[in-house]
Amino acid sequence: MRMQARTETDLINDDIGETKRLELYKTQLVIRDAEQRAHDLFLQNLVKGTSHLSLGQEGVAAGFACAMKHGDLSFCTYRGHAHTLARGVPVEKVLGELMGRDNGLMRGKGGSMHLTSELHGVMGSYAIIGAHLPIACGAAWRAQYKGQKDVSVCFFGDGTTNIGAFHEALNFAVIWNLPVVFVCENNLYMEYTPISDVTAVQNPAGDRASAYGLPKIVIDGNDADVVYREALKAYDRARSGGGPSLIECLTYRHSGHSRADPAKYRPEGELERWKQRDPIKIYRERLAQFGISEKAISDIDAHVKREVDEATEKCKAAPPTSLDILTTDVYADGGYAWRN
Amino acid sequence: MAELSYRDAVIRGISQEMERDQDVVFLGEDVAKAGGVFKATVGLYDKFGPLRVRDTPISEQAILGAAMGAAMTGLKPIAEIMFSDFIAVCFDYIANEFPKSRYMTNGQTKCPLVVRTGNGAGSRFGAQHSQSVENWCMMIPGLKVVAPSSPRDVIGLLAASVRDPDPVIFLEHKSLYSIKGEVPDGEIVDTLGTAKILRPGKDATILALAMMVPRALASAEKLATEHGIECEVIDVRSLVPLDTQTILGSVARTNRLFTVEENPRLCGWGAEIVSIVADEAFYDLDGPPVRITTPHCPLPASDLLEDAMLPNVDRIVDRIRRTMGA
Hints:
The structure holds two protein chains of two kinds. By secondary structure, chain A is α/β, with parallel strands linked by helices. Chain A has a single domain (8-315), classed as Thiamin diphosphate (ThDP)-binding fold, Pyr/PP domains (Rossmann fold, 3-Layer(aba) Sandwich), CATH 3.40.50.970. Helices cover 41% and strands 11% of the residues of chain A. Chain A has helices spanning 8-12, 17-43, 58-66, 81-86, 91-98, 132-146, 164-175, 224-239, 270-276, 279-289, 294-317, and strands at 73-77, 122-126, 152-157, 180-186, 189-190, 193-194, 218-220, 245-250. Chain A starts with 7 loop residues before the first helix and ends in a 23-residue tail after the last helix. The relative contact order of chain A is 0.16. Chain B has two domains: 2-183, Rossmann fold, CATH 3.40.50.970; 196-324, Rossmann fold (3-Layer(aba) Sandwich), CATH 3.40.50.920. Chain B contains twelve helices and 14 strands. Chain B has helices at 6-20, 44-48, 60-72, 91-97, 101-104, 134-138, 151-163, 212-227, 244-254, 269-280, 303-309, 313-324, and strands at residues 2-5, 24-28, 53-55, 76-83, 114-119, 144-146, 168-173, 180-183, 196-199, 204-208, 231-235, 238-240, 257-264, 290-294. In chain B, strand 10, helix 8 and strand 11 form a beta-alpha-beta unit. In chain B, helix 1 (6-20) runs parallel beside helix 7, helix 3 (60-72) packs parallel to helix 4 (91-97) and helix 9 (244-254) packs across helix 10 (269-280). The radius of gyration of chain B is 19 Å and the shape is globular. At the A-B interface, strand 2, helix 6 and helix 7 of A face helix 3, helix 4 and helix 5 of B.
C-alpha cells in the first residue's frame, strides 16, 4: 500500500482533478479538526455521555461523501460524526449536539451516536450494531420502486460483520438487486478486541462477499483518492441497475473505541506505524505531488481551523436545550399522548 | 353487506389500501406467490404484481429494516412477520428503531409503516408459535398497537393503520382467521384509539381484546341468562392509542371492572388499565378490579393443556359470578 510516484502522464490524465482533490482534503481536515475539538471539549467536561471518534479514518468518510451526488443517502453508525460532517453538515450543528445545546443538530435529543440531517442526506446514525444495513436496503428499495436514481450508502465497522443483520442485509440486497453500497471500515478492532481474534476469515467483509455472489473488494481506506475512485464505481453500478457492492476499507482509529477507552490493548508501535500512514499526511503529500501550492494548502488549514474555532465559541455561548421539547415528536402529531 | 371471513378481510383490507395508494407495498415470508401460510394474502401478488407484493427470505431483521428504510424515504410498507413470536428475533426494530427515530432526530424522520403479524393461541403450536405479544409492543413509546376481533374491524383498522403516520403493530389473531362476520360494501376506514362497546350492561364492565372478545361476549350471555348479571363488554381494539374515556365512562356506569387477557399475567395491558381506573375512577368502583389472564406460564402444545391455560367462558363466568357475589 505504498504510494506510487506520479509521472507527468499521471498529472495530465488526473481523473480526480484539482477542485475535487481540494474538496477531499478539506473534508478530511474538517473531520480531523472537529473530532479533535470534540475530544478536547470532553476533557473540559463540555461534552457529556460517550463519543466515538473517527480520528485516523477520515479518508473513508471523505472519499465516499465527495463521490456522492445530491440526494444520495448516508446511513451511519454511532461512529458517525465523520460521515455527517462529510455531507456538509455544519461543525456548529455537530458540536452543539454533542454539547447538548439548543443549536445542536437535534437540539440535544439524539446526541453523539444518533447524528441525523435529512437535509444533507444523512438518514441517521444507528447505535445498535447492524441495524442500519437492512434500513439502507429499504431506502434503496424505495429508489428502485420509484425509479429514482439515488444511492443508499451504509457505513459500518468491522465488528458489524459478525452480527446477523449484516448477513441478512447482504443477501437481501443481492436478491432484490438494490442500489445500496455497504462500506466496512475495518479499523482492526471491534471495540477493544482485535477483529482477527473473533472472525473466521482474514478480511471480515471482503472474505464474506463471495457468500453473497459479490466480488471481494478490499482497499486502502487511508488514501482518499483510492476510496473516492472505488466509491464512484460502486455508485455507478448501483445507479445503472447493477445492484449492491460491499467494500472493505482498511484503516485505523488513532484513539480508543470511545471516550472511556485509552486503547491500552494495542501492541507497542502499532499506532505509530499507522500514523505514518495518516490519511491527512498522505493527502497533503498527494496535493503537493499534483502541484498544489503550500499556500493553497495552508489557506485551507487556516480556514478549517477558523470554522471549528468559531463553531466552538458559538456552541459555548448557545443556551442549553429548552425543556419545552422534552416530550415532543414521539408521535407524528408532535406529542407523546398514548391515550385520550 | 356481505359475510366475510377474518382471513378474507385481511386480503380485502390490504387490497383496499394498495388500490388507493401506489406507495403502499407489501413484503414478508411466503406472502406473495404462496399467499401466506395462513392464506390471508392470497391473490395480492396476482393483483398488484411482483414489484408491490414481495416474497422475502427468512430474515425478519431484513424485513423490518427494509420496511423502515422504505417508510423513512417515502413508501408506506406493510410488513408481515409470520408468527408474532418471531418479533423476538427482530425486536431491535420494534423497540429501538421504528419508535425512536422521530424523537431522537427532533422530528426530522418519519416511519409510516404497518407490521402485520399472526398472534395468539389456539392452534396447538406450542410455546414459540402461540404467544400473545401485544404487551411486548405496548410498552414502547412511539409505537401504536392494534388488535382487531372481527372481519369488519380488520379492514377498518388496517386501513387506519396504513394511513397513520406512525409505526403500527397490527396483531391478527390466528384463531380468528376462520370466523365470519358481516362487512359493509365499499371502502371501510376506522379510527385508531377507539374502543367499541359490543354489549351494553349495567352491572359490570368486561374489557377484552382479539380472541378474548368472543369469549367475553359468550360469558356475558351466560352471566345474564343464568345469573342475572348484565355485563357491558368492550372490545379495546387499540392498546395504543388507548381509548380510556370509553373505559372510564363504562366503569362510571357499572362500578365494576373485569379484564380478560390472553397474555400471561405479568405486565399485561389489563394491569395498565386497572392502574388508570384506580387512579382516576377509584370512587366509581364498588369492588376491586379483577384481571382474568393466562397464568405466568409458557403455553403448552397439547389441546387439553392449551385450553386449560387460556381464559375460557367457564373461568370468566365463574370468576365474575363469585366476585359479584351471585
